[in-house]
Design goal:
By secondary structure, the chain is of the alpha/beta class. It has two domains: 115 residues, Response regulator (Rossmann fold, 3-Layer(aba) Sandwich), CATH 3.40.50.2300; 95 residues, Winged helix-like DNA-binding domain superfamily/Winged helix DNA-binding domain (Arc Repressor Mutant, subunit A, Orthogonal Bundle). It contains eight helices and twelve strands. β4, α4 and β5 form a beta-alpha-beta unit. It is elongated.
Length: 226
């Protein structure tokens, strides 16, 4: 299942993402309310996990906006504000569940499973399971990549890197976007980690003299396309 996590605390987010990924879920993490709201409005998820005390805007404002747009995806609010009044306020704003911090992952996982069992459909676009750019195809369910009939063997990090680029095909993907979405870094580590991985990915995608698909935009990032 595909889950949107909007959480600005890096350690908490990493804890949740790692746990849910191990449970077999695909987790999209946004570090602030603005990005979380954008993802919630433009992509489809099976469950939303929103931190209440987010910057720009907070979790309840995000939820209110999504509900106002007709998106009924089950939502779990996480908050250090755990008294009755705050829980009631969260539920009245459209949350399906409310969980106080700190928490055990086993409880979070059980609550997410409960929301998934409800099977409440969201009204955002259908979940994308395959990405195609020119002759390059990425199957998000089978975790496979092909260029034409040629199978491309990718490491997990390379697969995620290619997925991000293909989701933004034709657009410039900045180094900051890649650090956040592929490495879950919300700071510049001052290393050439991106360049090294892109170089290896380019060798695999553009093998055997095939036309270039991954283009460097100097000083900014990369663009995938013909």
């Amino acid at each position: 299942m595909r889950i949107l996590l909007v959480e600005d605390d890096v350690s908490t987010a990493k804890f949740i993402v790692n746990g849910l990924t191990e449970e077999g879920h695909l987790v999209e993490h946004a570090v602030n309310g603005r990005d979380g709201l954008f993802l919630g409005l433009t992509e489809s998820f099976d469950v939303l996990i929103l931190d209440r005390m987010l910057p720009d805007p907070d979790g309840l404002t995000i939820l209110k906006s999504l509900r106002g747009a007709g998106i009924t995806t089950p939502a779990l609010i996480l908050s250090a504000l755990g008294d009755v009044e705050h829980r009631v306020e969260g539920l009245r704003q459209g949350a399906d569940d409310y969980m106080s911090k700190p928490f055990a992952f086993s409880e979070l996982n059980a609550r997410v499973a409960g929301l998934l069992r409800r099977g409440v459909p969201g009204t955002a676009p259908a979940v994308v399971t395959q990405l195609v750019v020119d002759t390059l195809a990425l199957d998000l369910l089978k975790h496979t990549a092909k260029r034409g009939a040629r199978v491309i063997h990718l490491q997990p990090r390379e697969f995620k890197l290619l997925e991000v680029m293909m989701r933004h095909a034709g657009e410039v993907v900045t180094r900051t976007m890649l650090l956040e979405q592929v490495w879950d870094y919300h700071f510049d580590p001052q290393t050439n980690v991106i360049d090294v991985h892109v170089s290896k990915l380019r060798q695999k995608v553009e093998a055997d003299g095939e036309p270039a698909l991954i283009h460097t935009v100097r000083g900014v990032g990369y663009r995938l396309g013909t």
